[in-house]
Design goal:
This protein is of the alpha/beta class. About 20% of the residues lie in helices and about 30% in strands. The protein contains 8 helices and 26 strands. Strands 7-4-6-5-9-8 form a 6-stranded mixed beta sheet, with no helix packed on it. A hairpin with a 2-residue loop joins strand 20 and strand 21 (about 305-310). Helix 2 (about 25-30) packs parallel to helix 7 and helix 5 crosses helix 6 (about 270-280). The longest helix is centred in the C-terminal third of the chain and has 19 residues, at about 315-335. The two termini are about 30 Å apart. Bound molecules: adenosine monophosphate and magnesium ion.
Length: about 425
Amino acid sequence: MSKDKVDFIAASCTDDYDPNSMPVEQARRLIRQYLTPVHDQESLPIREALGRVLAADILSPCNVPNHDNSAMDGYAFNGDDIATEIALKLIGTAFAGKPYSGKVGRGECVRIMTGAVMPDKTDTVVPQEQAQVEGESVTFMAGPKRGQHRRFAGEDLKLGQVVLSRGHLIRPADLGLVASLGMGEVSMYRSLRVAFFSTGDELTGVGQALETGQVYDSNRYTIYGMLMRLGVEVIDMGVVRDDPALLEQALITASTSADVVMTSGGVSVGEADFMKLLLEKLGQVVFWKIAMKPGRPLAYGKVGNAHYFGLPGNPVSVMVTFYQFVREALLLLMGNSHPTAIPLLSAMCVDEIKKAPGRTEFQRGILSRGAEGAWKVRLTGNQGSGILSSMSEANCFVVLAEDCANVPAGTVVQVQIMDGLV
Ligand code: AMP
Ligand code: MG
């Protein structure tokens, strides 16, 4: 992608394009315009479709349920028999999976179990708790409404209707829904392949001794975790030194084996120019300084045919930029046409928060229910972008909008819950 094209697209989506301080929402919009979802498809047994994206609409081959049936254990009868006091003759039993095949005449009823087919000429069920049975006589007081406790054929899904649409991400309910149609296989987009590596001369692998000035490479582990939750195929390429030849080789290998290349480190001030030159040689890259904290430096572009995300090096920034930008981008690339945005919840902030206007902040918070049941949030303490323990301790991000300044204690703020985030 050329710089001109970037400028053109940026200008078309907003007038105040500023690559040195791009608002979060604008950067999200800009990334979205470059994403072309995978298109290869494969047929999968339904269980393997969990967390993957449907490549074709699923049409219902039948009605679900496929017959009118009872919603209760009780007695089925003809609603014409409803009177002030009802006494009916018990003539048989209908079980789930074992219908009553006879006819039910006026003044008669059939004992019926939940899920059993409504016998011919019956339309109403009185629950067993409301009935007295003596031998073949069933009586109950007035009150039943005609048609009560009867489930209709097709009330869940109708024959021929679109049950799930192409681009839908399959969740546990969907596995059951597809199974309820009797389908054993579904047509899914292929998995997205993501290759990633860490950059930095100071990085050491776990299990090695740490020399002065070195740090363990933790980013590759958080990135691995976040990618696995998203259900993509991962290619972990380890650590690459800050050496142009090695970085170039690693970027080429990554871009030829994956749909997406992700790196951490090397995009902050000082290192960015060097990385930028390399990326311009191999593809086309837009570098952004996003008006956010943490996570200001973030690169997005292409390396060969692969999409490229250059995440910052600081461990908290890695996670924040992943959740705020990469997560949605990967879901779109997986074919998910409408990725669910991470929901925002209002909560009263117990702490005072210092903040300068001009950037969106994602502080780490701990959300809990107050005594009165209302949500409240406190901060985890040190909010430095290297304090990874703040991410472990937190269960939410406190999202402070760009124009917001200091927040006094007791203010209602917006939070994004981390639990359940993929
Ligand atoms: P950089 O963006 O490369 O300038 O790195 C910014 C900060 O993040 C530095 O303190 C790095 O040591 C640290 N850092 C970079 N990569 C990693 C990594 N993979 N694991 C842990 N810390 C890292
Ligand atoms: Mg570095």
